């Protein structure tokens, strides 16, 4: 049976409902012919949003302006300009250890941890693998594809280098053996190949770096080594000067060695960028390994030397850093997450010309950062990709289809004013590809709640998510004392569905003539927003007789005036409070009905219903009452007569008097229980809900 796309089904349902509404409806006697069956529906992945999980490698095409990111599970993500994104997957699921673009040819080579290499065709609509090659006896450690070359060089763990013809994707038979590359008198193995690069001025020569600290300049035509360079520390990376007269190596002791090509006996310069320089001229103290270094030249100024790692060992707990050395200045840029890889973006793809670097793309474990090298202070570019979905952990997610046509433009208009400061003024440099619209005919919105109290609205109508608007609920509450504290109570109110409070925000439009529209407080005035405390089912003091915290909310609502921008504005704050020295349970569910002006929320102990227009508690019920077979509103019949004296001195009370045991009963309970029972304490916990409503000032937007 033919399979149908679920989006087309939704389109059909929308169209049918609209036509039925316009036709005035059908008669009840008309039979509805149901044509949809379970076989017509199927779930399939249409697009993948968010940051690549566990990234492992990266490559950039400087001509087509396309960025490729590989992951540890074999996934491949391609990024271009805003809206251009593609997801591919290797069938083996092995980690991608390295990526190499065939620059300006629409092709990409991927090397995997299972010792296989693949050639991807990116020129078609859905990228696919054209050729594959797998090594069975040696493990791949490094690959290099020179610019405008058909030869792919593959280094292995045994120290050998194999050459593959990219056009036919077959081995050429030319192998550079490790025992011929190093000194013949050396008996120890040099270790795996950690670097391969071609000479900028002579494509017939390769620079080969071995892990042990040996670097070899190999002549491909003569099949011999021209020069060998030896250092007593392990090598992590090598970078050429564009003239081909010098190269720089990064080492495991945090040092950088600069070598003149024709002077292999001794390094021309040895520096430790983050090491303490002894006054007696001795060798600096060792630092952490410099994992990667890049050496880029400029026509008008000093060259750039960019490196990751190399910090001093005494910097315990310091975040990962990227170091930019330009002339005599050294700038250390701290990152939020560990650095996986980085690339320097240059104006030219030719290795024998001045590089003219303009940006650095840094791949972190959970983020992608681009640094502007052309501005003072090295600001970062504002990322247009929807990679920040998990910038703060997502605690809830809602999907809405066929939204009102004016909603997305309104959210976008308000959200465009929320631009953060401090970003580079230049355009996003990864600008390749053509942006395509989605095929669906209805607007879609995804709303995510996050652990830091923010709510993000995403436009999901196109193939790539776009942030429309960001709402911060944390600003409604007072900040915790001591900003350095990591256990801020602001995190207790994490989102709509996780926390001990409910923040109700209303979308506010200009209403010059409305009576309910508050004005902005006068700057410098001592006035504070109005605070209204709503009635609760029971009333207790702020502290019980045994010293327990009672009727105290987990978060303190701000007492100072709050300036709110156009968009969703806070109208009501509902909080659960401490009862009998116990904190309230987290809210696990929440629903709102704007037609009736009701908010319903619940947790493991019960639920509450609030009229948010009147700011009144309508109902709260315990879990035991929800599962009770009897009517929760059932009450025992009472006589309207006044109390009369009975035998034995016992009096019959009317509705206005209660015994001690009656006062311990829930207003919705049909049975009594001692005040100190577990059920009663749970019931009291549900009943003692404190509602705080705050009227905040609104900023009137003239264009709304």
Structural class: mainly beta
Low-confidence stretches: 482-499, 508-545, 637-676, 681-704
The chain-level mean pLDDT equals 77
Percent of residues in β-strands: 25-35%
Oligomer: single chain
The profile of the biggest β sheet is: 4 strands, antiparallel
Number of helices: 6
Helix content: under 10%
Give the overall shape, derived from the CA principal axes: elongated
Number of DSSP E strands: 39
- Quote the distance from N terminus to C terminus: 50 Å
Strand order of the largest sheet: 1-2-3-4
Radius of gyration based on Cα positions: 34 Å
Biased composition (Low complexity): 647-658
GO cellular component, one term: SNARE complex
GO molecular function: GTPase activator activity; myosin II binding; syntaxin binding
WD repeats: 228-269
Topology:
Blueprint: H1 6-22, E1 55-61, E2 66-71, E3 75-79, E4 85-89, E5 96-102, E6 107-112, E7 116-121, E8 128-134, E9 140-144, E10 151-156, E11 161-165, E12 170-176, H2 178-181, E13 193-199, E14 202-210, E15 214-219, E16 224-230, E17 235-240, E18 246-251, E19 256-260, E20 269-271, E21 290-296, E22 304-309, E23 321-326, E24 329-334, E25 339-346, E26 357-364, E27 368-372, E28 394-401, H3 407-415, E29 444-450, E30 454-459, E31 466-472, E32 501-508, E33 531-533, E34 567-576, E35 589-593, E36 598-603, E37 606-611, E38 616-622, H4 623-626, H5 660-663, H6 678-687, E39 689-694
């Amino acid at each position: 049976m033919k399979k149908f796309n679920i989006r087309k089904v939704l389109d059909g349902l929308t169209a049918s409902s609209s036509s039925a509404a316009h036709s005035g409806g059908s008669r009840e006697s008309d039979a509805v012919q149901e044509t949809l069956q379970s076989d017509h529906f199927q779930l399939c992945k249409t697009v993948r949003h968010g940051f690549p999980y566990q990234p492992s490698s990266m490559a950039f095409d400087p001509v087509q302006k396309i960025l490729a990111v590989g992951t540890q599970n074999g996934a491949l993500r391609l990024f271009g300009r805003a809206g251009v994104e593609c997801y591919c997957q290797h069938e083996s699921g092995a980690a991608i250890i390295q990526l190499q673009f065939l620059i300006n040819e629409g092709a990409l080579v991927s090397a995997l941890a299972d010792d296989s290499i693949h050639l991807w065709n990116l020129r078609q609509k859905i990228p696919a693998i054209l050729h594959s090659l797998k090594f069975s006896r040696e493990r791949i450690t490094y690959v290099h594809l020179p610019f405008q070359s058909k030869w792919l060089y593959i280094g292995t763990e045994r120290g050998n280098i194999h050459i593959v013809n990219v056009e036919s994707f077959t081995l050429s038979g030319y192998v550079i053996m490790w025992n011929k590359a190093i000194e013949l008198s050396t008996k120890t193995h040099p270790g795996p190949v950690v670097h391969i690069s071609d000479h900028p001025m002579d494509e017939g020569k390769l620079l080969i770096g071995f892990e042990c600290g040996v670097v070899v300049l190999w002549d491909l035509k003569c099949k011999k080594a021209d020069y060998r360079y030896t250092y007593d520390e392990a090598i992590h990376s090598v970078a050429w000067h564009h003239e081909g007269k010098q190269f720089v190596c990064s080492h495991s002791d945090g040092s950088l060695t600069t070598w003149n090509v024709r002077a292999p006996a001794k390094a021309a310069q040895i520096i430790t960028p983050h090491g303490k320089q002894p006054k007696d001229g001795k060798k600096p103290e060792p630092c952490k390994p410099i994992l990667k270094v890049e050496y880029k030249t400029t026509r008008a100024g000093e060259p750039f030397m960019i490196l990751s790692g190399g910090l001093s060992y005494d910097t315990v707990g310091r975040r990962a850093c990227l170091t930019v050395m330009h002339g005599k200045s050294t700038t250390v840029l701290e990152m939020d997450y560990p650095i996986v890889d980085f690339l320097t973006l240059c104006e030219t793809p030719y290795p024998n010309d001045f590089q003219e670097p303009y940006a650095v793309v840094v791949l972190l474990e959970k983020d992608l950062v681009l640094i502007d090298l052309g501005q003072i202070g090295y600001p970062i570019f504002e990322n247009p990709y929807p990679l920040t979905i998990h910038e703060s952990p997502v605690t809830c997610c809602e999907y809405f289809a066929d939204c009102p046509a004016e909603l997305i433009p309104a959210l976008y208009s308000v959200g465009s004013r929320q631009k953060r400061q401090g970003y580079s003024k230049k355009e996003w440099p990864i600008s390749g590809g053509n942006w395509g619209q989605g095929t669906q005919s209805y607007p879609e919105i995804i709303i995510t709640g996050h652990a830091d109290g923010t709510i993000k609205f995403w436009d999901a109508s196109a193939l790539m998510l776009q942030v429309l608007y960001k709402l911060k609920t944390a600003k409604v509450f007072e900040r915790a004392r001591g900003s350095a504290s990591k256990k801020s109570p602001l995190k207790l109110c994490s989102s709509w569905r996780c926390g001990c409070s409910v923040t109700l925000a209303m979308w506010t439009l200009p209403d010059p003539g409305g009576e309910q529209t508050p004005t902005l407080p006068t700057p410098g005035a001592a006035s504070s927003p109005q605070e209204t405390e709503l009635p609760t089912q029971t009333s207790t003091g702020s502290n019980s007789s045994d010293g327990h915290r009672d009727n105290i909310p987990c978060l303190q609502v701000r007492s100072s005036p709050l300036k709110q921008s156009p968009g969703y504005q806070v109208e009501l704050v509902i909080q659960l409070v401490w009862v009998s020295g116990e904190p309230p349970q987290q809210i696990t569910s929440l629903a709102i009905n704007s037609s009736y002006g009701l908010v319903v929320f619940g947790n493991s102990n019960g639920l509450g219903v609030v009229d948010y227009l009147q700011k009144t508690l309508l109902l709260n019920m315990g879990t035991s009452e929800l599962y009770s077979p009897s009517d929760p509103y059932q009450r025992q019949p009472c006589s309207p007569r006044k109390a009369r004296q009975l035998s034995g001195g016992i009096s019959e009370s009317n509705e206005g008097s209660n015994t001690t045991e009656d006062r311990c009963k829930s207003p919705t309970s049909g049975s009594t229980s001692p005040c100190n029972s577990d059920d009663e304490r749970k019931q009291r916990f549900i009943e003692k809900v404190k509602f705080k409503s705050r009227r905040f000032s609104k900023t009137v937007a003239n264009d709304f």
